[in-house]
Amino acid sequence: MVNSNANALGIIFPNSYDKTMPEMTNDRLMASIPFASRYRLIDFILSSMVNGGIDNVTIMVKENYWSLIDHLGSGREWDLARKNGGLNIVPPFAMRNQKVYGGRIEALVNILAFLKKQKEEYVIISDANIAVNFDFADMIQKHIESGADVTLAYANLEGPKTLPDTIESGRDMYYLVDLDVDGRVTDIKINRELSPGPHDLSMNIYIMRRDRMIELVHDAYVDGGIYFERDVLLRNIKDLHIQGYKFSGYFAVIYGMKTYYDESMRLLKNDNLDALFEGNTIYTKIRDDNPTRYIGDPKVVNTMAADGCVIEGEVENSILFRGVKIAKGAKVKNAILMQDTVVGENTEVRYVITDKNVKIGRDQKISGSQEYPFYVPKGKEV
Amino acid sequence: MAKEMVAMLLAGGQGSRLYALTQNLAKPAVPFGGKYRIIDFPISNCVNSGIDTVGVLTQYQPLVLNEYIGNGQPWDLDRLNGGIHVLPPYQKAKGSDWYKGTANAIYQNISFIERYDPQYVIILSGDQICKQDYSDFLRFHKEKNAEFSVAVMEVPWEEAGRFGLMVTDDNDKITEFQEKPKEPKSNLASMGIYIFNWDILRTYLEEDEADPESENDFGNNIIPNLLRDGRDMYAYHFKGYWKDVGTISSLWEANMEVLDPENSGIDLYDDEWKIYSRNPGMTGHRIGTEAKVENSMITDGCRVNGTVKHSILFAGVTIEAGAVVEDAVIMGGSAVRAGAVVSHCIIAENVEIGPGAIVGAMPSADEAGVATIGSGVTIGARAKIGPSAMVDTDVKEGEEKW
User: Fold this and answer.
1) Which end of chain A is more exposed for a tag (fewer CB within 10 A), N or C?
2) CATH number for the domain including A347?
3) C-alpha distances in angstroms, B32 versus B45, B59, B129, B199, B331?
């Protein structure tokens, strides 16, 4: 067979880190959180896989996944509506005496039979709380060259300052990696308190041979393992060759409202926006909105806006998603307004995140602060 | 499965009066209204009207159009049964022919229509901006028990002589057809949109083909023949926005009208009647810290840091700080560099307007032309392009072109 595509399949965990953003994941999951004016978080890793030649992608949904299924549809917008491979959404499997899985090992055990039948030689697994234009083709190449059992993508960045208290320790947070001179991972430290400044943190993107992964997951499960990093990687750190793959491009990891707000605002610098989008196209669901209309002289500065907006009021340092309406006399500053938000006449909005379909009436004043942006939940009328 | 009505969309027009804009693409592929191409309008009308089988007849410069239409997915026309099909002239066992005229283009594709065994065929034009519900037109056609219907617009009497006119009785039955007459007897102008009973259309296409004298044209040949035979022909009154964008000034004007939907009647902000288009997949647009935007339409991928007044920017347009853009239509991927002044003009795709260049001018008492820059052209720094100029080759730094 002509190998025009990557010899790897992708597995994405869209619910990872849900609990760090309880506000926004009340009726959705991390992967379908809107980001960067017209995307959902999953668009980034999914498009990166497609752009890297991966055309067999499995999404292991766990809970609150209706919005994601609606967003992904048949996968057509990512060119994943295929006869062979394509997009494969796996809902959780639970029975009366068996609860829905907790960690990724339990999740992967459920699809071992599926994995055994696939023909790709490698498997890539990733979370979806990361906005990145990732070069998977290069990572696959490096993995093959190194001869490693597992390649782990990491980046040198500032770690989270505090652990959100909703997180049980030992899972779903961050993994500090120690590397030797050859870039081999010698230790993985879970949720370690970090000194200020950048550290080598895992991006939770891994690649390994499919048959090897089946074996590792099976063995870990039999030993009562739950979490991939702890029970596969860390437990076997001496025997496995885990190679680090340093990613030095632009990316935004989202955990908690504050990082969501800060990472969104960081894109208002053109250099950052270019760094994230200048590579391959990031695909998303198309809404067929008309272009955005500026009526009168609305004084808009330093703003990113998607299509379908109608802007009559002032907007500064803000991100407007598709179909946002800003009435005359309204003042919007340092805000993130998601799809179809309406801001009424003479209403002032500062340091605010509105979810989808929020309607704010006239003559209102809503403000949060840079540290605590005020969040208005989906569909709320103020 | 038989289809009730199949649409045949005439998209072979060269659009010679749009010259610089149609050097490399057919008129229906000319960009319009910020994120559309002209052909998005009739195709979207078809889908919104419930028509799922569309033949697109191409001839002149079809590459852009072919690629744009692709499998029809943006219009939801990638169907198992029906869907959208591009129909260029092709070689047959007994020779091959270019499409000799509008009627001949349909004649050469009789076998395409036959595959769907339709009762009705609607003939559409690929160079008009119009939101029209063809299902209402079909309702009229059936109510009148017509064999042929034509959509007509009332035009001012003093302009009637420029159009093909339908003279009708009180029941909208057509009694006479006048092509661009000196003395109009009617002000009902044909929009070039026809519904035929398929058996009638087929009969007249075959007769027309057999006539060596014929120009194989609907207006000049088929309609007069139908009248000659006393067929049941009716005129359907269309009252919405309609514009034939065959000239630079009408294309510019129609774009400007999009900016003023409250008064012009062309409303693209209509969730009930969306116009679909192929999406370029760019991020939301950016308005910079030094930007000033008034009464304009801006779409994905634009970077605006200059002044934009009463203009339409297509996907991926860059307006640098200090540049001033007014009453302009700037198509996808073009850039206006710092300090350039661009007014009252159409700039095609991927044009580079150098720093400090001046393109076009706001209309004055003796000059109201719409300057036009063809696609891919570079206008050098501080060059000057006059208000009626049509530029399709690069202009060097500091040069003037009128």
Assistant:
1) N
2) 2.160.10.10
3) 16, 21, 9, 36, 8
